[in-house]
Amino acid sequence: MELDVIVKLPPDVKSSKDLKVTINTGDISVAAINGDIIIKDTLPYKIKAMDSFWSMTGGNLLMHLEKVQERWWNRLLNSETPIDLDKIDCSRPLDDLPEDHVAKVRELQWNQERKMKGLPTSDEIRNMDVLKKAWNAPGSPFMGQEFDPSVLSNSSHTIGSFGH
């Protein structure tokens, strides 16, 4: 979801006051105050310009760019030669991922095991809970009857008719 870019700056650029950096949703421009163009190009995909920022340290320009869409980029700038993404090992140990990503991977693994055993997945369990609540909701054609989800697929009533 983000790109962190490091650009080696010319030696005459001593501070951030010597730079003019423009980050737009589809392009980037970096110029020295003397007018020399360091980078001026379009991006292969859109970024969130308002959530992106830059700083300068030790002769380098650091840019943090927030992507609009989660995806691998095969280059930063459209003028660059694309790299072959198939040659990159994108795998990481599970422990290196953020906690919420680990939880999602574990849920996917759990669901895969459930599917193989013919048991309901977490989404199917959640959907069944919603159906159970709607079963006896005011206006439900099933109000007062014992919950039987097979009725929903065998009758003229559709799941979409709840709450409409």
From TrEMBL:
The entry's localization annotation reads: Cytoplasm
Note the superkingdom of the native organism: Eukaryota
- Keywords, ordered alphabetically: Cytoplasm
One GO cellular component from the entry? cytoplasm
Q: Which InterPro entries match?
A: CS_dom (IPR007052), HSP20-like_chaperone (IPR008978), NudC_fam (IPR037898)
Specify the CS domain's residue ranges. Answer: 1-77
Gene Ontology molecular function: unfolded protein binding
Gene3D superfamilies from the UniProt entry: 2.60.40.790
Keyword match Cytoplasm? yes
Record GO biological process: protein folding
Q: Does the entry feature the keyword Acetylation, yes or no?
A: no
Pfam name, any one? CS
User: PANTHER family attached here?
Assistant: NUCLEAR MIGRATION PROTEIN NUDC, NUCLEAR MOVEMENT PROTEIN NUDC
The protein's name: CS domain-containing protein
